[in-house]
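User: These chains co-purify. Model them together.
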Amino acid sequence: MPAPDSLGAATPASAARGAGKGAQVTLAHGSGGRATAQLIAECFHRHWHNEWLAQNEDATRLPALTPGHVPVVATDLFTVTPLFFPGGDIGTLAVNGTVNDLAVRGATPRYLTVGVLLEEGFPIATLETIAKRMAAAAAAAGVAIVAGDTKVVERGKGDGLYLAVTGVGEAPVEPVWGAAAIRPGDRLLLSGPLGEHGIAILAARQAVPLETEIVSDCAPLVSLIAAMRATGAPIHAMRDLTRGGLAAAANELARAARVGMVIDEGAIPVHPAVAGACELLGIEPWHLTNEGKLLAFCPPESVEPLLAAMRAHPLGRQAAVIGTVVADPHAFVQMRTTFGGVRLLDWLHAEPLPRIC
Amino acid sequence: MPAPDSLGAATPASAARGAGKGAQVTLAHGSGGRATAQLIAECFHRHWHNEWLAQNEDATRLPALTPGHVPVVATDLFTVTPLFFPGGDIGTLAVNGTVNDLAVRGATPRYLTVGVLLEEGFPIATLETIAKRMAAAAAAAGVAIVAGDTKVVERGKGDGLYLAVTGVGEAPVEPVWGAAAIRPGDRLLLSGPLGEHGIAILAARQAVPLETEIVSDCAPLVSLIAAMRATGAPIHAMRDLTRGGLAAAANELARAARVGMVIDEGAIPVHPAVAGACELLGIEPWHLTNEGKLLAFCPPESVEPLLAAMRAHPLGRQAAVIGTVVADPHAFVQMRTTFGGVRLLDWLHAEPLPRIC
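Assistant: Joint model of the two components:
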């Protein structure tokens, strides 16, 4: 039987029990006893199986890193509501969100650990569906789920299911992508249109009278970034645009790098349906969450090869140069509007939507 | 300003705002906007500062591992209630629980990532207290908190605060401690008395009329295990005894190693107050959770040096040989009772207490 603190191997006896039709998660499933082991075997191990998970111990030993590489880690909690939305689900989002955080630092994602926080009464069939989606997303991103933990809280102390995912990858010792490498004169490359995840979630909640064909852009950026790296063109920094959108990412990096930025509003790709929804709702696409878009900073000579590589990739077809880094001790991010004016691209105190990822 | 998905550097301006006396966590603190960055700066970065956390990016680059070592990972969710209990708190428990999972696999714990899942309305002062406790626990265990994420859920969708902690350590390529190395004839060494965490939590909940001086045994086992390794005496496997207690750990390892075990009830150290509480409540100390105890498996010739090293350490003063591994295709764990009988040491379907860790 698997260790309660791990996601261990199912025995035939345990796999046959406890997950009948309509079965729900109970507090016993989180107690660390046999019930926990059964749930782990039936819902997780069955779909996530790999040699590392099969170690079935308190901690998982991983292979040595590639020589000349350092470990890179990222961690995220996922609380999105609803759990299933057009274009994705919490499990796919959790895998993609974590691998993207690693990939934008120049790392190759390798391993994930997954914490599953369940509320008593959650349908076991839904849990298994999410586990399957995570397995598919992990396979697509080239990572293995190697360790996990499951806890159950009483009814009213959770919201069905939350996920905590940590990713471990490896990056070459050089170059180091990050804010510290951004220089005045660098160009800003955006991989595609903004705001699709935010609008898809808003529509799925039916909190506003919004009918739209928009689906979340939730996707792993690993292969897009690999294609960009393969050009050999220098890249200085990269961010995936999640909570806070383009506005937050640009402002954070401007402050961290102690530079200004000038962004051309007219150069920012936005799907017409997202633009329409934003107008209706009185929000801007650069404040909306994305789950499959990146912003890259590179010297001018890298623009042509990088843009070509991005546009040749399914996730970068609408990639565009949207701005330039400028010297500015105030670290202001300015936007040249389509009307020819200039205004500050502000970073909001709070985003328009909570529980978006 | 720090990235919303990281635990970044405070700016003086942000550190001065938003955390007045009586302040509470709001949904804005989890939105990824400025409010999130302020909370992260004020509550976490201030106390957890180190060069890796200061990278302030989506993912954290770590130093190369020691040559001849492989990465080891462990992940845990922490949902203990109450958040503060005699002998510990959820933050200390989360750090110790994670480093112990790494240490029992022969790894030196190096880095932690921390996910903080907050319920709207949680007092910011309490959050900062927990962050401080985590900083102290991390320092005591020799690890750095290098990455994190913060999310906020609406009132009634959480229980104040949950933590998701992942640990990264490094272990020598050889030897590999684990169930696969356990052999018939191996001895079972227990580092100290059982059940103190479980009884402390039960008393803190005041769910039963239990008055006791018992405090949680919550502690990092890193230095105890280092002292054991320093003897050079072969060790085959090790587990820290958490949810499910000695009974679950012994049964899991027996099944995984396809061996039986015979444990001497009379050899198991139990604090008289724990024994008394167990008798009152009708539960057994080997089913109770511990947070600072380990069970080691070693060949007979290792017993003397290991036991000497354990007893010379503050966390192993009452260490004892409690049993022997035997050949048994049924993988039964038997207990020789103090009355001279033999019975199966069963593994419960559900533990007596949920939300214990």
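Residues 106 and 175 of chain A are 8 Å apart (CA to CA).
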